[in-house]
């Protein structure tokens, strides 16, 4: 079996705040301190959000029709909302095809591909064409945009619609995928469907294959900035456009993946302190970055 490169920490930078008096010198700091007082304040903010939740008659519609919300999102924004993820190879070297032997044939599945902000950069970087890339999304509008891109080439990859909370796609043979990417995707799934989604993805992995995850962590600034009528349930919210987002802890994520037969090789918080120097405001980004391996004895 090929050797899989190890997960490296977030490559955003190595700017550490060692002197708190200098916090305003830069717009961002890596791996900042997170203490009990900060967590207490975050919990108080969330308790305040619960006072004005989403109206009950809207909740069932939001939970049962996520596809509609995402189709509306892509119909409105097309390919002009997200930026290409040019940091991918630095944070996930498993996707760097230069690290594999010349005769390698690596099958990758990108989950929640949107309009191709991961797909097309990965194919562009794969100069020797070692990768075959499957790209799926449960928004048909997003897939239409991907297929309409001038760089879409089915000799190198295939895009298709798939709700990963449903049985695995017939577009992919079970046990055939080397690497699956889930970049800010699993948080869009209601907690009740989370494990089913992971199990569905696991069936597509080869033994020893991996799932790479980057997603929102509990108490991320985006969670704490929600105002009235966004709270649905514990750590589950709807955005203004109706799309869902759930904020996990890394322990919660590890438990769910282990339940589905996937072992954590790495699962860490990727923290960032964002500084607005104009108004003297400090905000914490808290993401989870992880790599889970499919057990070889299943």
From TrEMBL:
GO terms for molecular function: tRNA (cytidine-3-)-methyltransferase activity. PANTHER family: METHYLTRANSFERASE-RELATED, TRNA N(3)-METHYLCYTIDINE METHYLTRANSFERASE METTL2. SUPFAM superfamilies: S-adenosyl-L-methionine-dependent methyltransferases (SSF53335). It holds the Pfam family Methyltransf_12. Belongs to the methyltransferase superfamily. METL family. GO terms for biological process: methylation. Its EC number is 2.1.1.-. Residues 109-211 form the Methyltransferase type domain. The keyword Ribosomal protein does not apply. It comes from Mesorhabditis belari. This is tRNA N(3)-methylcytidine methyltransferase.
């Amino acid at each position: 079996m090929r050797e899989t490169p190890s997960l490296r920490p977030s490559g955003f930078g190595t700017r550490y705040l060692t002197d708190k008096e200098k916090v305003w010198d830069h717009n961002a700091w890596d791996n900042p301190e997170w203490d009990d007082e900060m967590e207490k304040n975050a919990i108080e903010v969330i308790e305040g959000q619960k006072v004005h939740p989403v109206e009950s008659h809207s909740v069932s519609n939001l939970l049962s029709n996520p596809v509609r919300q995402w189709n509306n999102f892509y119909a409105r924004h097309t390919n002009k909302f997200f930026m290409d993820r040019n940091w991918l190879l630095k944070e996930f070297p498993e996707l760097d095809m230069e690290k594999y032997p010349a005769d390698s044939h690596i099958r990758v599945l990108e989950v929640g591909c949107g309009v191709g902000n991961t797909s097309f950069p990965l194919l562009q970087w794969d100069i020797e064409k070692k990768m075959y890339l499957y790209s799926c999304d449960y928004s048909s509008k997003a897939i239409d945009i991907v297929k309409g891109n001038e760089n879409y080439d089915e000799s190198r990859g295939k895009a298709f619609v798939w709700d990963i909370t449903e049985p695995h796609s017939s577009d992919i043979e079970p046990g055939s995928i080397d690497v699956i990417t889930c970049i800010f995707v699993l948080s869009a799934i209601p907690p009740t469907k989370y494990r089913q989604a992971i199990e569905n993805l696991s069936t597509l992995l080869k033994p020893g294959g991996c799932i790479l995850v980057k997603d929102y962590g509990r108490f991320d600034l985006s969670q704490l900035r929600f105002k009235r009528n966004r709270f649905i349930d514990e750590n589950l919210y709807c955005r203004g456009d109706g799309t869902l987002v759930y904020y996990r802890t890394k322990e919660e994520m590890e438990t769910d993946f282990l339940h589905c037969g996937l072992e954590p090789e790495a699962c860490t918080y990727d923290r960032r302190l964002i500084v607005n120097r104009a108004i003297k405001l400090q905000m914490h980004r808290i993401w989870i970055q992880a790599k889970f391996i499919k057990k070889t004895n299943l």
